[in-house]
Amino acid sequence: MPRSGWVKPVSDRRLSDLVSVGLLTRVFPAELVDQVIADAGR
Question: What integer pLDDT is reported at residue 2 of this predicted model?
Answer without folding.
Answer: 65
